[in-house]
Design brief:
Blueprint lengths: L2 E3 L5 E3 L6 E7 L4 E6 L17 E6 L17 E6 L16 E5 L3 E3 L4 E9 L7 E9 L8 E8 L12 E3 L14 E7 L5 E2 L4 E5 L7 E9 L7 E3 L2 E7 L5 E2 L14 E2 L6 E7 L1 H8 L7 E6 L7 E10 L2 E2 L4 E3 L10 E9 L4 E8 L8 E2 L3
Parallel strand pairs: 15-19
Antiparallel strand pairs: 1-2, 3-4, 5-6, 7-18, 8-17, 9-12, 9-16, 10-14, 10-15, 10-18, 11-13, 11-16, 20-28, 21-27, 22-26, 23-24, 23-25, 23-27
GO molecular function: copper ion binding; dopamine beta-monooxygenase activity
Cofactor: Cu(2+)
Family: Belongs to the copper type II ascorbate-dependent monooxygenase family.
């Protein structure tokens, strides 16, 4: 039945019944209910279902509902963030496809709020072009909330194998000079995300002279409780194939530059910042190398705890197009790629605006923006 709750957590039967039971099944271990509902019901007691993140809250009691009403669920409850209209793409990949892992080895995570750890790797696939078809996170069990995001950068090909011997804290005065050659992001993963499967006609190219030979993996550790003695071995698994696809994949980064000039005042129910990827920027970035533009097939929206909503706006010839991607219910712990229903072409001379909405209503100090 269609119920809703008020601010006192009291359940009330909705006079407008918008949920319809499709079927129900029960056995000794599971009760399964399948139901349907319109995305927009025009009922003030219902929440519209959009492409934004939806927080599904569930609860159950082992006894059926009696005449006195529902039984209290106790600890039988939970929540899960989903993107109901934009689920993760699942492609049937051959189980025999080769892969390689890029994982940290016994990294001591400091007892401080934020740490960025950098480790250099050499791509083991050489001398022949292959395509990476899927990237999976390998998060050490129990560290799901510690590892906040992972970035993979392409480095200079002129390095030698001696750079592989050690990791170091990123952005540190004593970090190796070789890390400074790693500027181009080739893959990104963030907390709550599952593996990323490239579309059937696209792959991340590896194995040729122009492809990454040395890569830097940057892992952001989030340790707000200052836990001591943590040792981490997380990383990424790259699955690849010799069967080449039509297009090579790349990454375009757009958003707010990480700097001390970007800060958010405390006590703000809403604060909006904009990052502009201007037409001059895109002309310079795409004009010579990609004059016919690039096709965007997925977007990863990324923010931190104060983030409440993100919108990726696209302008062509000064006219605003349909939003490239958005999430008006952003969940810090669920940062998953959004696959576009139709690929979008971005041309030299277009504009991109990343619009970030924050809330600091529960904070008493200035918030400084970080990676």
């Amino acid at each position: 039945q269609d119920y809703f709750t008020d601010e006192n957590r009291v359940l009330k039967k909705d006079p407008q019944q918008d949920y319809h039971l499709e079927y129900a099944m029960e056995n000794s271990t599971h009760t399964i209910l399948a139901f349907s509902r319109e995305l927009h019901t025009c009922d003030t007691n219902d929440k519209s279902i959009t492409e934004s993140t939806v927080r599904v809250i569930w609860a159950y009691h082992h006894k059926d509902m009696g005449e006195a009403g529902q039984n209290y669920h106790g600890s039988n409850r939970g929540t899960k963030s989903l993107r109901l209209l934009n689920p993760e793409k699942e492609e049937v990949l051959s189980a025999s496809l080769p892969y390689f892992d890029l994982t940290n080895k016994d990294v001591p995570v400091p007892d401080k709020d934020t740490t960025y750890w950098c480790q250099m790797f050499k791509i083991p696939v050489q001398h022949k072009k292959h395509h990476v078809t899927k990237v999976e996170p390998l998060i050490q069990k129990g560290h799901e909330n510690l590892v906040h995001h992972i970035l993979l950068y392409q480095c200079s090909s002129n390095l030698n194998d001696s750079v592989l011997d050690y990791g170091h804290e990123c952005y540190h005065p004593n970090m190796p000079d070789s890390f400074l050659t790693c500027e181009t992001v080739i893959f990104a993963w963030a907390i709550g995300g599952e593996g990323f499967t490239y579309p059937p006609h696209v792959g991340l190219s590896i194995g040729t002279a122009a492809d990454p030979q040395f890569v830097l993996m940057e892992v952001h550790y989030d340790n707000p409780s200052y836990t001591e003695g943590l040792i981490d071995n997380s990383g990424l698994r790259l699955i690849y194939t010799p069967v080449l696809r039509k297009y090579d994949a790349g990454v375009i980064e757009a958003g707010l530059w990480v700097s001390l000039f970007h800060n958010i005042p405390p006590g703000m129910p809403e604060f909006v910042s904009e990052g502009h990827c201007t037409l001059e920027c895109l002309k310079e970035a795409l004009g010579a190398e990609r004059p016919s533009g690039i096709n965007v097939f997925a977007v990863l929206l990324h923010a931190h705890l104060a983030g409440r909503a993100i919108r990726m706006r696209h302008f062509h010839n000064g006219e605003e197009q349909k939003l490239l991607a958005y999430d008006d219910e952003f969940d810090f712990n669920f940062q998953e790629f959004q696959y576009l229903k139709e690929e979008r072409t971005i041309l030299p001379g277009d504009n991109l605006i990343t619009e970030c909405h924050y809330s600091t209503v529960d904070r008493i100090r200035m918030t400084w923006v970080r990676k």
